[in-house]
């Protein structure tokens, strides 16, 4: 009787992607909350140099379509003050992200429910990137909604070609529905620190750069400090206290 064929596992705890040292131009400083336009930051970076990028675009999405009429008055006062990105601006960001990511590098893209349902594939159409996974963040608090009430946000996992998991993604116990309350909200776009830490550990090695060109509360910077990674990022507004 012939011996059964041994199949190699698609999982690996060992990373086989070696990154080269990144040369940053003088205006860019790591591990600091830079105040500048993220498009300018991205345009200064070398192609194929960054292994992981987080991007939380400030766009209207579901809020414009729900039209409660009292945003900035009775509710969402801080969010109403933030400068919104147009679809064209988001496209420019994603085009530059696709350039600076290393081959098989990852983009973690935050989206709301409307963008998830209508699809984000149009945002990356024609770019050398593919959607490979999705994480839903359960914020453990109730939000708005005409019908169902929002309790979460969604993180689309996008990978630059060539798409592969083995040897690139090395943490295999991250749940695709992640419950993490935020004890103190400093920013209207505050994101889950522990989830970001786990994702950073999954796709980067210690000492590698993680980029956030629209950093908001700079929670990615905190996650980098906790995991021994190097943070590079900015926001058009000053970091909140």
What does this structure look like?
This protein has helices at 38-43, 61-66, 77-80, 87-100, 113-118, 193-203, 219-227; strands spanning 34-35, 50-55, 101-111, 129-138, 152-160, 177-179, 209-212, 230-235. The protein is 23% helix and 21% strand. The chain has an 8-stranded mixed β-sheet. The protein has 241 residues and is α/β, with parallel strands linked by helices. The chain starts with 33 loop residues before the first strand and ends in a 6-residue tail after the last strand. Strand 7, helix 7 (219-227) and strand 8 form a beta-alpha-beta unit.
List its traits.
8-stranded mixed beta sheet; single chain; alpha/beta; globular; 241 residues; 7 helices
Helices and strands in order:
Layout: E1 34-35, H1 38-43, E2 50-55, H2 61-66, H3 77-80, H4 87-100, E3 101-111, H5 113-118, E4 129-138, E5 152-160, E6 177-179, H6 193-203, E7 209-212, H7 219-227, E8 230-235
Parallel strand pairs: 1-8, 2-3, 2-7, 4-6, 7-8
Antiparallel strand pairs: 3-5, 4-5
